[in-house]
Amino acid sequence: MRKAFLFIGLFFLIILSVSGAAFSRTLTTASSTYRGDINEDGQVNVFDLLEILDMLSNPQVQPERAKLIADMDESGSVNIFDLLGLLGVLSGAETPGMIYWGPAIAGLSQKSVDSGDTLTVYVENFDETITADSVKAYIDEKELDILEFNLEKIMIVIPQRFYGGWLRLVVGADTTNSMYIVKIAGISNIYMVSIPADSFQMGTHSVEIDERPIHTVALDAFQISDTEITNSQYAIYLNVALALGDITVTPDSVIGASGEYRGRTYLEFSDGFIVDSTVIDSINRCWIKYDGTSFDVEPGMEGWPVVFVTWYGAYAFAEHYRVSLPTEAEWECAARGGLQFDYGTVDGTISGETANYDKIVNSPTDIRNYEANPYGLYDMAGNVGEWCSDWYDENYYSYSPSHNPTGPENGELRTFRGGSWQTCDWACRSANRFFAGPSYRISYVGFRVVRR
Fold this sequence. Notes:
Layout: H1 2-22, H2 46-57, H3 64-67, H4 80-91, E1 104-108, E2 118-124, E3 135-139, E4 142-143, E5 145-149, E6 153-157, E7 167-171, E8 178-181, E9 192-195, E10 198-202, E11 215-219, E12 222-225, H5 231-244, E13 247-249, E14 253-256, E15 265-268, E16 273-275, E17 278-281, E18 288-290, E19 295-297, H6 311-320, H7 328-336, E20 385-391, E21 414-417, E22 434-436, E23 445-446, E24 450-451
Parallel strand pairs: 20-23
Antiparallel strand pairs: 1-2, 2-6, 3-4, 3-7, 5-6, 7-8, 9-12, 10-11, 12-24, 13-14, 14-15, 16-17, 18-19, 20-21, 21-22
Helix pairs in contact: 1-2, 1-4
């Protein structure tokens, strides 16, 4: 058996050397961590696994916590049997979880958590001297309440509104003695509304060719954020992405520094609409600012939807939190509220009392400023347009699949939906389709996210 392990060990040592050259996506900041992105059936993406192996093989760029895995020494040497044990965890052969230090996670009561849940972490090898006072739990540095603690399990309460990401347990005063559980928990102050599996009529008999023909679409159940992503929420993301080295900042923009869309503009620090060097509209601008160290939002604008965000910037936000942009079908289904509403408002009609559109207010407004539609979703008509994941094709409805359509396989333009504060009522209809290049940014386009 040990010879078999040694053979497997040599195999993975070869992968270690290959991955450093071919698949390197190394994190470079001292506070960085890596992850296995384990899904519900215990599988792990091979490129994420190669990233982990690459990081283990290159200790010079590793955060100190990473060196603790499998008793890594300063030269990068790792006991192959400990490494194989880690790979067993990642592959689903053992209980999913990322372990950075001696005491091990024996199991989790659930792999996915939502607001208000109680998560039980079953542990082993805890020293008897460990007390409840010496154990802390955090989601991205926000401390959580520990409901119960003993040497076999820790029960953690997930708050109603929380900043999601890595769930970290710390034991004792030495914060390097910590373990990370692989699972995104949520996003700051975002409520996800559950949309049941159902069928609806997508499109209209409109004169607009890209809304025809009306066709029946069946969707699996999904969740969608009840509001558009705000300036505050996007600034939180930017600060984390900056610390991880995922973005860079220029005097006028935020640029992707990693991932699929590296080098693309995510956000523009617009001062408003400028004509002949004169600002003619200073209210409709990007209200996120960067002081050279961190991102913040101008006071009073925290609850406005983020604008001057490109499709790339919306996509990067969703990727960071392991959620997605909605498909056009998901967005339209959610807007119709389960009642085939023409407008995504409280009663399916539009007026100055039910939506922010047609320059009645002449700027975006805070989220939840108007009543929600029957699904409990706000501003599905007006306020700002919302990027969707689909490529745009005006003829897509003529060949769209009837079950979970995701748009054309490729294209040059991306879609966005919902109208905005400056568009007329016709443009705010549930069926109306907008399109623009993915680098497009303007004062009336933002986004919301979905989880499937």
